Amino acid sequence: MFGRLGKDAGSLLGVEITPPFIRLVRLHRHRGRYSVQAWALEPLPAAAMRNGWIADPEQVGAALLQAVRRSAGQVRRAAVALPGGLVIEKLLSMPANVDDAAIVERLPVDCGQFVPFALEDAAIDFQVVGPDPDEPQHQQVVVAACQLALLDVLQASLESAGMCACVVEPDSHALRRAVQYEGVLLQVEADALVFHEWGAGPVSLRREVRMSNQGDFVQSLATAVDNYLLSRPGTALPEQLLLAGAATADPRLLVQLQQRLGLEMHHANPFKHLALAPGLQSRPSLAQAPCLTVACGLAMREDDRCLA
To answer: 125-134, pLDDT tens digit by residue?
Structure first.
């Protein structure tokens, strides 16, 4: 059920389950172009989630069902994001003549070096991303692993809403697909700030900082961003920062952060260049779009089969 990473792929619901909302996006792809069919932000009960993931599949399933009823029509096939902090990703170099079957045989040995839990409790997947620039006779392979228990509660939640997951991928992959951006993106949620930094490689740099509801939230964010940028010795300051996530809905946040940091900042808006489906009144607002960025990136996947 752990979907292959990085396949841009056909008409799936993009679903992100991150407090305080379920975020759902439905797109339609025609001749390589996407149109917005529907979206939804459905509140999640506080008790439904714990430590950033599903604690009560029935409550999550009920909220998901409400979102689907309001926006998804008859579509029940989903691409779902797994918070990147719950996924271990590693870029490996393997001989170029090793095919998929041989990679599968190698994975238990290779993953045993960096997966900190029993392999029988792990869901593992991989993607060959191309030649290794440092080893002419080798290829680069991205390997991802998570605990099977995370997928079990996800599957239970989806089944209670009459859905199935065709793709499960780390949220950073969906973010990158949605914004088509190389640089630093700040994913600002109610209780966490996540830094995503993309360069030429297939695996992003990711760092999460837990945030408190106490005190000056903007100042806490500014301090966290300063600390992150200062932790990159020898790296030039980015020309701009992108903002995504539920906590960016307040338009004052961007202005206040920009003033305190002295850096150019923009909201991520994956819907900016997408057409609207006939009958749809408007695209997600500037306040809604950053919250829906991951779900939009997931909906840009294409996959004709559901994984068992």
So the answer is: 999 999 999 9
Task: Kindly report, residue by residue over 95-119, the tens digit of the pLDDT.
Answer: 999 999 999 999 999 999 999 999 9
Query: What CATH architecture does domain 87-148 belong to?
Result: 2-Layer Sandwich (3.30)
How far is 224 from 209, CA to CA, in rounded Å?
Answer: 7
3.30.420.40, 3.40.190.10, 2.40.128.270, 2.60.120.430: CATH of 1-86+149-181+269-308: 3.30.420.40
pTM score, two decimals?
A: 0.91
pLDDT band of residue 305 (cuts 50, 70, 90) is very low
The sign of the dihedral angle between the CA atoms of 56, 250, 36, 182 is negative
- Tokens 């307040």 -> residue: 250
Q: Output the pLDDT for position 152.
A: 96
CA angle (77 as vertex; 72, 79 as ends), nearest 5: 100
How is 248-265 classified by DSSP, letter by letter? G-SHHHHHHHHHHH-SEE
- Exposed, middle or buried by CB within 10 Å (0-12, 13-18, 19+), for 210? exposed
Task: Please say whether the beta carbons of 82 and 196 come within 8 A.
Answer: no
Neighbours of 100 (CB within 10 A): 11
Higher pLDDT, 201 or 270: 270
